[in-house]
C-alpha cells in the first residue's frame, strides 16, 4: 500500500473523501436498521417526514446518491494514486453503482409488483462501504 504522505494532493484528498463517505454511508445504514424508533431521523419531532415508517434515510434516492458519491471518489483514487488496490476497489464499485442505478429506475418507473431495487441498493452500498473501511484499516495498519 502506498504511504499516504507520498501520494499527490488530489490522491490524498480522494482517499480521505472515500473513507469519510464510506463511514457516513455505514452511519446511515446504522440509523436505518436500528430498531429504536426514536433514533430514526424521520421520526424525530420537527424532522421532515416522508410518510413511511422507515424515515427518509431509507429512501432509495439517498442510497443511490451516497453510492454514486462514493463511486466518484473511488474512481478519483484509482486515477490519481495508480495503486493496484485502488484500481481493484474502483472496479468493484462499478457494478455496485449499476445495481444502485437499477434501484433508482425501479423506484421511479415500476409501479406494481415486488420491487427489490431498494434492498439491493442498500446491500451493495453497505458492502462497498465495508470494503472501503477495510481498506482504510489495512492502510492504517500497514503504515504503522
For the structure shown, list the relevant keywords.
single chain; 69% helix; 144 residues; mainly alpha
Could you give a quick summary of the protein structure above?
The chain has 144 residues and is mainly alpha-helical. The chain contains 4 helices and no strands.
Structure explained in plain terms:
With 144 residues, this protein is mostly helical. The chain has one domain. It is 69% helix and 0% strand. The protein is built from four helices and no strands. Helix 1 runs antiparallel to helix 2, helix 1 crosses helix 4 and helix 2 packs antiparallel against helix 3. The longest helix has 27 residues. The radius of gyration is 17 Å and the shape is elongated. The N and C termini lie close together (12 Å). About 10% of the residues have low confidence.
Runs in which pLDDT lies below 50 for 5 or more consecutive residues are 43-57
Please tell me how large the radius of gyration is. Answer: 17 Å
Percent in helix: 55-70%
E-strand count: 0
* Average of pLDDT: 75
Give the H and E element order: HHHH
Could you tell me the strand content as a percent range? Answer: under 5%
Structural class: mainly alpha
How many helices in DSSP terms?
Answer: 4
Overall body shape? elongated
Largest sheet: none
Q: What is the count of distinct domains?
A: 1
The rounded distance between the terminal residues' Cα atoms is 12 Å
Amino acid at each position: 500500500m502506498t504511504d499516504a504522505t507520498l501520494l499527490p494532493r488530489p490522491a490524498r484528498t480522494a482517499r480521505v473523501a472515500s473513507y469519510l463517505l464510506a463511514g457516513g454511508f455505514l452511519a446511515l445504514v446504522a440509523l436505518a436498521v436500528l430498531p429504536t424508533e426514536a433514533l430514526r431521523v424521520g421520526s424525530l419531532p420537527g424532522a421532515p417526514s416522508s410518510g413511511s415508517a422507515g424515515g427518509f434515510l431509507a429512501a432509495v434516492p439517498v442510497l443511490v446518491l451516497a453510492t454514486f458519491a462514493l463511486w466518484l471518489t473511488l474512481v478519483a483514487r484509482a486515477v490519481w494514486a495508480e495503486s493496484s488496490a485502488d484500481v481493484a476497489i474502483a472496479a468493484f464499485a462499478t457494478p455496485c453503482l449499476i445495481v444502485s442505478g437499477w434501484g433508482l429506475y425501479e423506484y421511479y418507473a415500476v409501479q406494481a409488483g415486488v420491487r427489490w431495487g431498494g434492498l439491493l441498493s442498500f446491500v451493495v452500498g453497505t458492502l462497498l462501504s465495508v470494503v472501503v473501511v477495510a481498506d482504510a484499516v489495512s492502510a492504517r495498519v500497514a503504515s504503522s
